[in-house]
């Protein structure tokens, strides 16, 4: 009997985390069957051996692929789509990669209950705790002031779905080939799924997103992230409706401006001008809007009461020092 839900898990050198991940999946209390589809990208730290132990215990639930060569380092992208989603037998797919984990044993039951009762929804996701191992004292959550119901037009303005929080219907026609070439895979995946229905948000923290040195983002620089984001969205251009494509174009422009500004701050003028030129070609008015906004923000600061009080105090101190009028 086919499982109702397939859980996709992608791992690479997650020996420190994979037990917590798999235990959190196996502890799910459901009234349906599920399977765990794993892709290990030639781990060298013992992850493969740990997964093999779990397969021995749960041979009817866990189905792994163990690569002998690291696919990512060979330039192969779209790994979940290429190796996992094609093996998923379930009507629904959930995601929990090897360094994330779930903390509510009812998580997928709650999401499946909703999706089964609401066929006009294609995605259900929830809030997540962020466990930043680089700053362990800081407690954060992934979604603030998130709308309960949204649509693809909302998602096109920027990604707000963390993969380990999502359950989605397997699309009727599978996934397009272009998804296999994406530098960033989760956002295009969510947009494709959102074409088939609305998006439901559950305001409960039912999982943990882990930030660590070996993670796909980890301490990734703002500049590198923006460059990767630009390339991803450029590859998605003209894949959706006019409204969605326009929203994606705005994201490209925002990221181009961010790259221009970051290079400018680093005093790398030639590179900053390259991004400025790309931005002007897309929209010559955006830079003007940004400059006007900066002027407005500066004007607010200069006319604020605290700034004026501080200026008077500084002038008084300067005058006091010059005149030497000390008591």
DSSP summary, beta strand count: 10
By CATH's scheme, which homologous superfamily of the largest domain applies?
A: Spore Coat Polysaccharide Biosynthesis Protein SpsA, Chain A
N→C terminal distance: 92 Å
Structural class: alpha/beta
Major sheet characteristics: 10 strands, mixed
What share of the residues does DSSP label as strand, in percent? 15-25%
Q: Approximately how much helix is present in the residues?
A: 40-55%
Average residue-wise pLDDT: 87
Quick one: overall form? globular
* Top CATH class of the largest domain: Alpha Beta
State the low-pLDDT regions, or none. 321-327
Order of secondary-structure elements: EHEHEHEEHEEEHEHEHHHHH
Radius of gyration: 24 Å
The CATH architecture term of the largest domain is: Alpha-Beta Complex
Count of individual domains: 2
CATH topology of the largest domain: Spore Coat Polysaccharide Biosynthesis Protein SpsA, Chain A
Q: How many helical elements?
A: 11
Task: Looking at this protein, list some descriptive labels.
alpha/beta, 2 domains, globular, ten-stranded mixed beta sheet, Spore Coat Polysaccharide Biosynthesis Protein SpsA, Chain A, 327 residues, disordered C terminus, single chain, 10 strands
């Amino acid at each position: 009997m086919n499982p109702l839900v397939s859980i996709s898990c992608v791992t690479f050198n997650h020996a420190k985390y994979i037990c917590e991940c798999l235990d959190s999946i196996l502890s799910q209390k459901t009234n349906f069957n599920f399977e765990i589809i794993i892709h290990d990208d030639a781990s060298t730290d013992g992850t493969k051996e740990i997964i093999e132990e779990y397969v021995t215990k749960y041979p009817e639930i866990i189905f792994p692929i163990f690569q002998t060569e690291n696919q990512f380092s060979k330039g192969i992208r779209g790994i979940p789509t290429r190796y996992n989603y094609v093996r998923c037998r379930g009507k629904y797919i959930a995601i929990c990669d090897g360094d994330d984990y779930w903390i509510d044993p009812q998580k997928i039951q709650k999401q499946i209950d909703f999706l089964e009762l609401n066929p006009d929804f294609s995605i259900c996701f929830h809030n997540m705790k962020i466990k930043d191992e680089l700053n362990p004292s800081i407690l954060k959550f992934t979604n603030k002031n998130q709308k309960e119901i949204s649509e693809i037009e909302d998602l096109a303005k920027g990604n707000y779905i963390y993969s380990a929080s999502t359950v989605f219907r397997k699309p009727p026609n599978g996934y397009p080939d272009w998804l296999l070439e994406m530098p960033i895979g989760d956002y295009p995946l969510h947009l494709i799924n959102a074409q088939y229905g609305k998006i439901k948000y559950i305001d409960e923290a039912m999982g943990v997103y882990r930030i660590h040195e070996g993670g796909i983002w980890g301490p990734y620089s703002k500049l590198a992230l923006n460059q990767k984001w630009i390339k991803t969205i450029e590859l998605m251009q003209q894949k959706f409706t006019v409204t969605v494509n326009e929203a994606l174009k705005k994201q490209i422009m925002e990221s181009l401006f961010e790259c221009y500004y970051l290079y400018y701050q680093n005093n790398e003028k030639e590179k900053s001008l390259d991004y400025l030129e790309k931005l002007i070609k897309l929209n010559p008015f955006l830079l003007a809007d940004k400059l006007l906004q900066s002027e407005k923000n500066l004007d607010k600061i200069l006319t604020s009461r605290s700034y004026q009080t501080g200026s008077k105090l500084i002038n008084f101190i300067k005058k006091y020092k010059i005149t030497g009028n000390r008591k």
